Amino acid sequence: MTKHMIEAGKPATKLKSEALAVLLERGLVHQCTDVDALDRTLSEGLVTAYAGFDATAASLHVGHLMPLMTMRWLQKLGHRPIVVLGGGTSQIGDPSFRNDARPLLEERQISANIATIRRSVERLVDMDGPDGALLVDNAEWLNEFRFLEFLRDYGSQFTVNRMMTFDSVKSRLDAQMPLTVLEFCYMMLQAVDFLELAKRHDCVLQVGGSDQWGNIVNGVELGRRDGRKLHGLTVPLLTTASGAKMGKTAAGAVWLHPEHLSPFGFWQFWRNTADADVGKFLRLFTELPIKEVERLSELQGVELNEAKKILATQVTTIVHGPEEARTALQQGDALFSGGDDLLEPTHKLPLERLAEGLGLLELVVAIGFAASNGEARRLVEGGGVRLNNRIIEDPRRRIGTGDLKANDRLAVSVGRRRKALVGFE
């Protein structure tokens, strides 16, 4: 099958479908199994498309926003999205481009993860009405298969020779890392997902990350053997202008669920976008008109900071809702202007932590400005940590009630970009 690499905004021929044109213009297309065939399909009427997410953690992260924004645009342009939450495939874990096997999860943990992921997804796609998005769990069909039945019906449709050619498998073997039979079968399960969705919901398009190319192609080919014309589309790998993989903070992944990263922490991540990435991220992660994106992308100096605030507020609105976005903007304006007139602290900790003897290093880790006490120590010793606008260079410093400002609050900053107002209650 031919792999079509597509440069954002520059299709090879004039497109018939508005949906594919918009996805290209926004930079959300990396590869496609057959661009012309998909363009025709999208131009002929409503198309049902799906993106799948394994429940290997209690929240999706910012890297998942690329396929989710693709599904969101498809829905806005008249098509129907299906979001598959992998209760079945999460029991194995996708080995794509990993050097080791994912830890095996118990079904109870997978179910709990699906419940929290569902709440984030429901904000990103419209679930209402007869044509609303569908949320399905692939355990519905994968858990029903018996081993010999599965091998007979589907194992005969795949060859090891073909599966060995995919980059996701080759990278693991080239690194001389073990690849279990369990993991090797994952791409078969994802292909079966696509065929099942085609049969149950007339789904003809799968959207995924660029690391999912081999898995998607397997599903398209399995559908062809069943007499179906299916399509695959991948979104680009999320990187910064420097080429680095994007989506991490000092404390780890940029989570979409508010229990794992506060809406303000999420807003601040986007507010701290590098200058060279502002235009790209406005195009990918907001729904602003392209002309407005281009205008904001051309701003310089202090004006570019305003574009960053617009970016942060727009993305936070999509992920957390307009009220949380407005509050985060107010908090950000107050913190970055040196004011303390916030409606709410950006982070909250129990007042008892002070009585127990809260260390400065623990505090820096607790608010997500460092991933470990060791990293926090290096920040402190380097003069990068401030309490109430005063540099603190002693890593043994303890925080007490005497450090608190009015309303039991404490201003904490690391460098110029990461700021927090911690409330104790």
Question: Can you tag this structure with a few keywords?
Answer:
single chain, about 425 residues, alpha/beta, Rossmann fold, Tyrosyl-Transfer RNA Synthetase, Structural Genomics Hypothetical 15.5 Kd Protein In mrcA-pckA Intergenic Region, Chain A, 3 domains, seven-stranded mixed beta sheet, five-stranded mixed beta sheet, 19 helices
Shape: globular
Task: Calculate the terminal CA-CA distance, rounded to whole Å.
Answer: 60 Å
Q: How many beta-strand segments? A: 16
Strand order of the largest sheet: 1-2-7-6-3-4-5
What helical percentage do the residues reach? 40-55%
Q: What is the CATH architecture term of the largest domain? A: 3-Layer(aba) Sandwich
CATH fold naming of the largest domain: Rossmann fold
Identify the CATH homologous superfamily of the largest domain.
Answer: HUPs
Mean pLDDT: 86
CATH top level of the largest domain is Alpha Beta
Largest sheet: 7 strands, mixed
Instruction: Give unreliable regions as ranges.
Output: none
Count of helix runs: 19
Supply the number of structural domains: 3
Strand content: 5-15%
Please tell me how large the radius of gyration is: 24 Å
Q: How would you describe this protein?
A:
The chain has 425 residues and is of the alpha/beta class. The protein has 3 domains: 4-235, Rossmann fold; 262-336, Orthogonal Bundle (Tyrosyl-Transfer RNA Synthetase); 347-424, RNA-binding S4 domain (Structural Genomics Hypothetical 15.5 Kd Protein In mrcA-pckA Intergenic Region, Chain A, Roll). Helix content is 43%, strand content 15%. It has helices at 18-26, 35-43, 65-76, 107-124, 139-142, 147-153, 160-163, 167-174, 181-184, 186-201, 213-225, 263-271, 278-285, 290-297, 302-320, 322-336, 352-355, 360-366, 373-381; strands at 4-5, 31-32, 48-54, 80-86, 134-137, 203-209, 231-235, 248-249, 252-253, 347-349, 358-359, 385-387, 390-391, 398-399, 409-414, 418-424. Helix 15 packs antiparallel against helix 16 (322-336). It starts with a strand and ends with a strand. Homodimer. ATP binds at residue 248. Belongs to the class-I aminoacyl-tRNA synthetase family. TyrS type 1 subfamily. L-tyrosine binds at residues 50, 186, 190.
